[in-house]
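Page header: ASSEMBLY MODEL / two components / 656 residues total.
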Amino acid sequence: MALPEQTGSGEPLIQVENLCKIYSLDSGAAGSKGGGTVNSQVLFDVSLSIHRGEFVAIMGHSGSGKSTLMNILGCLDTPTSGHYWLDERDIALLSDDELARVRNRNIGFVFQGFNLLKRMTALDNVATPLLYAGVNRSDSRKRALELLHQTGLGNFAAYQPNQLSGGQQQRVAISRALVNNPQLILADEPTGNLDTQTSREIMAVFQQLNREQGITIVLVTHEDDIAACTRRLVRLQDGRVVHDAGVLA
Amino acid sequence: MSLLAIIGEALRALRLNRMRTGLTMLGMIIGVAAVVLMLAVGQGAQTMVNQAISSMGSNLLIVVPGATSSGALRSASGSVQTLTMGDAQAIASLPSVKAAAPLITGTAQLNYGANNWSTVVTGVTPDYFQVRDWGTDSGALFTEVDLRSATRVVLLGQLTAKNLFGDEDPTGKTVRIKNSPFLVAGVLGVKGQSLDGRDQDDAVFIPLTTGQRQVFGNQFPGTIRFLMAQAESAEMMEEAEAEMNQLLRQRHRIAEGVENDFTVRNMAALTAVASGAAKVMSVMLGAIASVSLLVGGIGIMNIMLVSVTERTREIGIRMAIGANRRAILAQFLLEALVICILGGVAGIAIGIGGAWAVSQAVGMVVVITLGTVLLAFAFASAVGIFFGFYPARKAAALKPVEALRYE
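Prediction written out in full:
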């Protein structure tokens, strides 16, 4: 497969402008009088554009706002102000159902804690997004099994998450993320719960997906060697982008 | 997500918590079983009352001698003998009255071979059987000829026939009433219990004239014990009652302002009260049983709320991979509904079994209709939707980020 060189061509897949996120907390416990609220701003005017086929690492200390940014990019949370276009669609204009559809069709999630559904086989875990997309059970399972084979877990389809190792669980999670052929994979510290060797294997899977299938991957991490596996590094500090440049391989 | 897939998910989730599902379902099972059982018992009672009412005969009016009160002194009606055969004939010729049957009654000993049986002997005219809508199982009713010539024929009630003859066919045989021989003309059909609880099949009937002249004797010849009249139709009951009152006052020469020396009882009013009471009982039993169904429903709501809280993270994951609010709502609503429907079906089965056991154990009449079963089923489903909706909506209203972050 030829190396897809989509970077810089056409409209960006992700276009973020002046994104702000303010969390309002009830002040009851916070000490101020009356029923006022305490506002805490987590993102300040973040602007970012990511093109199709990019492999981006977002780094920052805890509290830097990287998880909040990921949640907004993943349509799990909404910004307080600013704009977010995903594939040229203004996310702020979408209803809850349309957001669910975007999460289902356009985005695949990989989490630090794997977030697989308990007491469900690996196969059913991978097939679930297809069920929500309205695909019937047998077709869903066929497609899910294909993906498990692709990530090297073909023999573990009938296992439940608690019977699998961390690395295997993360592979199941990646299979699930890929099952609806998304344009974008968002990975929130995908190697955070894994040992070095397994982390390297998981990163190899991501690199392969990016290189061979041209899937755009945005990954949050605070480990430098993980970030080094990507092709672009965005560093956040106190809710602002302080660094954005290509990674020297 | 297709409905089938959601049902699959719901069943899977319920299987994971067998114990909890079972206990929640038990609440539902008990509730539905109680409703089915109570309705069966209530409708059984209603059926019994209705049978008693229809066994009495339709559009019936009863005239008894004596007033319920005479000045300050209240006497039992029937304690004096003021009605005569002439009154009966006059009433029979009223336009609103189809037939009138005078009666005299007494108790007597009957013998057949070595068997004897003491029962109520009633002297009647052939009209009586028309009024009571009563026919024979074997043999034939006696006729006007028997009445005119005061023949010694007798019709036996089912119970009397059984006690005297066992399995023999009594028709054509001879029984002795107060030692006089009587030819058995026939055996009457089964009537069952009357409204006041007497067994109507424990009786024998002889021609009125035979009774007057040969069996009872009478202080006042020509008087009768009471009479039964049948109105032309249900709508004419009131009219018949009024006409009979007027006629009898005239015949008995009762002056204006003086109380009647007879009482006309409209049986339609009585039966309305009796069937009304049975219906009220039926409704009351059902209402009491539905309280347990309500408690079962609250149990479901409670468990579903716990379940939603426990599975907040699962809900978050499902939302992240593309479940919309409707899918989450449907999943939890269906879980509640599945509990209710399975519990409802089991409850219906247990309720039917319980009703059968009750009928076997205490000999009560129980009636289970398709309506009862459908009502119980609909009730169970309604409880599922009603009590499952709030927890399901709570689950669907969760914000994806917050649900995912939930530990």
